[in-house]
Amino acid sequence: MCGIVGILGREPVAMRLVEALRRLEYRGYDSAGIAVLENGVLKRVRAAGKLRNLVQKLSDADLQSTIGIGHTRWATHGGPSEANAHPHIAGRVAIVHNGIIENFKELREQLQHRGIQPESDTDTEIVAHLINVALEEGATPKEAVLSVLEELRGAFAFAIIFEGHDNLMIGARRGSPLAVGHGEGEMMLGSDAIALAPFTSRITYLEDGDVVFLTREGFEILDGERRHVIRPMQFTQAASLLVDKGGYKHFMAKEMHEQPDVLGHTMSEYLDFANGRVRLPELPVDLKALGRMTITACGTAFYAGMVGKYWLEQLARLPVEVDVASEFRYREAPLDAGGLSLVISQSGETADTLAALRYCKARGQKVAAVVNVPESTIARESDVVLRTFAGPEIGVASTKAFTCQLVVLAAFALAVARERGHVDAEREQELVRALQQVPRLVVQALEQEEKVAKVAHELAHASDILYLGRGINYPLALEGALKFKEISYIHAEGYAAGELKHGPIALIDEKVPVVVIAPRDALFEKTVSNMEEVAARGAKIVLITDEAGAMEHGAKAFETITVPAADPFISPLLYAIPVQLLAYHAAVFLGTDVDQPRNLAKSVTVE
Ligand code: F6R
Fold it and tell me: Are residue 370 and residue 408 in the same domain, yes or no?
């Protein structure tokens, strides 16, 4: 995934930028570059491939500038070529960017109407041009950036420098991470504290919506409402650790907030936004001839698999069996040689999932693995690896790995559906566009955190909680209950909303809160009926829905949490957010060990 760095320093910055980029290599990249202001003029050096290629080019450049920005790029819009590598320059503006600009096509067309022809295929260059146009119209750099940010849809972090301004760097973040580093008479920007660790351990983490204006002497931050704000400076341990908490109280909090960023990166691997197409590595089976498929996984990854089943059956008309790996391996399930199995695992080391994989292979099946750790045993032993790009997940309760698994499964289902002739090019484009909006909508869902925390504090007093969901959101009810019990130690169960009256409704009284996950979709009225059944028995309802759902039935709930309205296809990705936040804030309220809950291990390598 892309990494950003910027230094406004006192000594030549070119090699210091490279040093910082080297520390961002762990995020993965396929090209790199820097831009500096050499004697007041923008100079740029970029190279496809590894940083050594950039270093090679820099050795001929003899750059002495003390201000510059750098970038490691993970290709999203446009392939991994030098021309698409960052920084991008337009007139007097150089910019590096991490994230996805959703409305870049419209913005590019606007520029083309003005006679401006971008050189690269990237969304980033469009932003550079827009800022440059504003400068040419007489705006100051600060005014230009603020006005262009208003026009952008998507999730992003930027670092920007300007010809003619040797003591100014502007940073901005919405969704993607960005930190300010404080040096001695110098200031920096970085995707994380690790990038800046060689130069400083004093870090200020920007919050979503923030814009920062750096000079060598200090900095000024405006928040999303464009009010002056002060964000705390912290001392980090990043020099000695590859991962730190990034200013959050827990890894789990950091990992939940990383979701817009890592979802964007995972998507960019599997979706071609420019053409509205899904692109998957070649699968070693004839998808058209496939009669069925199995998915195996454990815990949260299993719930991701359940969502995958809905997508595959609805979109690709492919019958799918989903099993918990510990059952599947002993069930002696008959499997056809030449068929396809999918295993899902964050760690890639879960013993039961690995055993399921080996069981499938022993019966002549081809195995595709959705894994987050590419060097893991499951990745090594499977025929095709569909990697999630969640980055290291430290909190035991899986959050960002889960939503990244969903992204891969959505892309997978879409690719299979296209191959089997159940989705035409137009529908494929629509669904890719819907997915493209996920990082931005996740940012919006995360903005509800304060409200969700209040609800979580109420739930923390309960001894038992039920979660209800229907259709593709039923697995979310299961995941919500799992998350809640594993970190708050409060008993919680998830049920298919329609199943309640077949038994579990006997549990309901005024002491059992019921969390209902119900977007305003085709199944909404049915779920609301189930909600009324429990409300009539005294249960306190927490309704998680969108604005339309809240308008219609919010009054029946004790508390309503709203999630941005979206295409039902992507709803599991959005409803995962309040479900995670609820569990997290209940656990924080109760004072449990959020990142390492009792009795649990991150990687379960025993049966
Ligand atoms: C729950 C959780 C676990 C894991 C499960 C599988 O928050 O994290 O349920 O999902 O142990 O682990 P992986 O995905 O590493 O195979």
Answer: yes
